[in-house]
Write a structure and sequence with these properties.
Blueprint (H helix, E strand, L loop, with lengths): L3 E6 L8 E6 L2 E8 L2 E6 L13 E3 L2 E3 L6 E3 L5 E3 L8 E2 L1 E4 L2 E5 L1
Antiparallel strand pairs: 1-11, 2-3, 3-4, 4-9, 5-6, 6-7, 7-8, 10-11
Length: 102
């Protein structure tokens, strides 16, 4: 059953910043794009690399290992070598709690 889990304080993740969080041993990246939060699998689908350590340009994350690119809103692959999209997760802010649905 899906549930929302508090992963951080919303004001702790600044616009343009990404962080890695763990939810039930699942690595999830959370990004703030102009005050809108997005959550997605932190592990690149091409190779075992943390996307939170990559570059964020608007709604595109670039993997630091082989430069695959993903749309963090949909998980879609934008540039190879990755071919499998990321899983994305619903996000909400309750008070100052940033919550991800898993």
């Amino acid at each position: 059953m899906a549930r929302f889990v508090t992963v951080a304080k919303a004001d702790s993740i600044q616009p343009g910043q990404m962080v890695k969080v763990e939810i039930d041993n699942l690595p999830v990246a959370v990004a703030n794009v102009g005050g809108t939060f997005h959550a997605f699998d932190d592990t690149c689908t091409h190779e075992d690399c943390s996307l939170a350590e990559g570059e964020l340009a608007r709604t595109t994350v670039t993997c630091p290992c082989h430069f695959a690119e993903f749309d963090i809103r949909t998980g879609a692959v934008l540039a190879p070598p990755a071919t499998v999209p990321l899983k994305v997760y619903p996000v909400r802010v309750e008070g100052n709690d940033l919550q991800v649905e898993v």
